[in-house]
Design brief:
CATH class of the largest domain: Alpha Beta
Structural class: alpha/beta
CATH superfamily of the largest domain: Guanine Nucleotide Dissociation Inhibitor, domain 2
Distance between the termini: 12 Å
Number of domains: 3
Largest sheet: 7 strands, mixed
Shape: globular
Number of helices: 19
Helix content: 25-40%
Amino acid sequence: MKRAVVIGSGPNGLAAAITLARAGLEVEVHEAEEQLGGGLRSAELTLPGFVHDVCSSVHPLGLASPLFRTLELDVDWIQPDAPAAHPLDDGTAVLLEHSLVATAAGLGHDERAYRRLVGPLVDSWHAVERVLLGPHPVSPKALLRLGDRLGARGLVEAFRAALAPARTLAESRFGDERTRAWFAGHAAHSMLPLERRPSAGFGLALAVLGHVVGWPFPRGGSQALADALATKLREHGGEIRTSSPVDSLPRADVVLADVVPRELLRLGGGRLPERYARGLRSYRHGPGAFKVDWALDGPIPWRAEDCRRAGTVHLGGSLEEISASEWGAWRGRLAGRPFVLLAQTSLFDPTRAPAGGHTAWAYCHVPNGSAEDMTERIEAQVERFAPGFRDLVLARHAMGPAELEARNRNLVGGDLNAGAMDLGQLLFRPVRRLVPYRTPLEGVYICSAATPPGGGVHGMCGYSAARVALKDLERRA
C-alpha cells in the first residue's frame, strides 16, 4: 500500500486526504494545532455557551462544492431567509434573495439589467461551476460546454463582466446608487480595490451562488463541517494527528501540503530548486482582517427590518465609501468608516447561544499585518445601522492580523484568501506552472488556497491536487 502524508487539516487538506484514502492509499494528516479544521474551527470565544466561528462562518461554496456534494457529509446546512442584506442610511436595505426574480424586483429600475447580467449564469450554473471550481486544470471540454450553454456571444460577455473591475461593472450596468452600493458590498469580499480586476467576478459569483445554493452555514458552527470531513476520512482508513507540527517535508510516496508558499519554503529546507523558490518568495499577500465576535443579550436592532432576514449583512453605505475603505486596506491606510462584513448566525441557529442570547461576528479589511485595534470603528458601523447595538453587548473578543496568523499560519498578515486574488495571481498561483499543484520535488504537492481555484471553503484545491498526485503516482508505477 502506498503511503501519503497531508500537512494541515483545513478543508483543502482534509479534501486531499479523503481523495487519496478513497483511492486506496494509507493516509495520515498532521495538524499543528490542538483542534483540527484550519479555518473551520468553532469555539466559545466570549462567554460559556456562546459558540463562535474562529475564522470562516458562511459557506456558499461549501454547499456548491462538487467534492463535498459526493461525500454525503453529516452536516445540517442552515439557510437564512435571505442570503445577504445591505442597509442604507435612509433606514432601508437592499437584499440578495434566494430568488433571482425577487432580488431583481427589489432593485427597482435596475431589475432588467440585473436579470440580463445574472440570469444566464444562474441558468447555466452546472457549466459555470466546472470552470469556477474545477477540478483544475479546467479541460477544454468544460469551456466548450459553458460556451454551448451561454452561446459564443454570451460567453464572451460573461467573461468580460467577470474579469472587470467591480466599479466599472456597477457604474456601466446599474443606474441606481442603491444597486451600485449593494453590488460593491458583494465584490468587496475579494479583498481587492473595487477598481482592480477581477473584483466584479467575486460580486457576480456571490450573487449567482445566492440564487443557486444560498449562503448557508452548518448547524452548531463551522467546526461541524470540519468534523464531518474528518469522520469521512476515518471511514476510509485515514488517520489524523493533532498537536503534530511538521518542520520538514516527510518521506512518503505522496506528500500534500495545505500550506501557503512561505510555509512550503520553510518545509523544503533548501531542497526546492532556486527558480521555483524564487517564485514562491515573490508570492503576494493581500490585506489582512480585523475580526470581532460578540455575545449579545438579544438580536441586533437593525433600523431596516429586512436585515433580520439575512444571515450576512454588509455595512458600508455607498459604493464610494466601500471603495475608499478597500483602497485604504490595499495601500496601507486605515479607513475611518471601514466596510464591515457581519454574520448573525444565531438568528437562524439557536444552538449558537443560550436561550435569549445571540452571537454575531464581523470583520473589516486592514493593511496586511496591521496592529491597529479596529473594534471601536467596527462597532460604530454596526451602531450606525442598528442604534442600540452596543447596549446589547455582553462580551466581545477581538482578533487582529497577528492573532489570526498565530491561530493559522496560512493567514499571513491576516490575509483570509491565502494570497492576493488579483488578475495576475488568481490565474497563476502560487507560481506560473501548467499544473500549479506540482512542485519540482517528486511526490510533493501544494494544495492550499494558494492554488486554484483559490480562497473559500470548498476543498477543491485539495481535491484537484490529489487527483494530480494520483495520476503521477500511477505513471511512476
